[in-house]
Design brief:
The chain is of the alpha+beta class and 189 residues long. It is built from five helices and seven strands. The protein folds into two domains: 72 residues; 105 residues, Pleckstrin-homology domain (PH domain)/Phosphotyrosine-binding domain (PTB) (PH-domain like, Roll), CATH 2.30.29. The radius of gyration is 26 Å and the shape is elongated.
Length: 189
């Protein structure tokens, strides 16, 4: 995995997003099938209107399914991440783009979360907790959903390595600054 490039979620993420949004189309389809099987109980005078209504409902279901399919695709394509020297960039959103740059030394911990369905298809969710404060709670908890499990372990390891490296560099910089301040105070005495 090249850490300098911008990465998108894997192909399995599309399945996760599609499954997340497909509850209502499935319910609609079950109701439509039930109505279709019961059309024989409609009086003959209303049969033409029943067929018309069922075909209209079928077209509405196709439209709803197409909407869910496109929404899932755009949500899938809307997530990306990139490693830089000082920042970890996360971009999400398909209408409103949210771009978050996390300074490595502000990362408190990184968690890999896997549910039963996630383990079944081989994906993980990475949750990055930072010590950034603000009005937006999404800044302190950043989630990368549905990443391949092997890639998630690599990202996890790299984030912790860079966070540890930057924290050590930050501490040594602070210690040098304190030492130079002490030296300046001693010069004035």
């Amino acid at each position: 995995m090249d850490f300098g490039d911008t990465h998108h979620l894997g192909a399995r993420a599309f399945i996760i997003f599609l499954a997340k949004h497909s509850k209502w189309p499935l319910i609609f389809l079950v109701v439509l099938v039930l109505l279709w099987t019961q059309r024989g109980f409609v009086p003959a005078d209303y049969a033409i209107w029943t067929d018309f209504a069922l075909k209209a409902l079928l077209l509405m279901w196709l439209g709803l399914f197409a909407f869910v399919l496109f929404r899932s695709y755009f949500e899938y394509r809307g997530h990306s991440y990139r490693f830089d020297d000082e920042y970890f960039h996360v971009t999400n959103g398909y209408i409103t783009r949210n771009e978050i740059g996390v300074v490595y030394h502000q990362i408190q911990h990184v968690t890999i979360k896997r549910g039963v369905f996630d383990r079944l298809i081989g994906v993980s969710h990475i949750i990055i907790v930072t010590n950034m404060v603000g009005n937006d709670p999404t800044i302190s908890h950043i989630t990368l959903p549905a990443i391949n499990s092997n890639k998630a372990r690599l990202i996890h390891r790299e984030l912790l390595r860079k966070a540890q490296g930057n924290a050590s560099a930050e501490r040594s910089r602070d210690n040098r600054a304190e030492d130079s301040d002490d030296d300046e105070e001693n010069d004035w005495e």
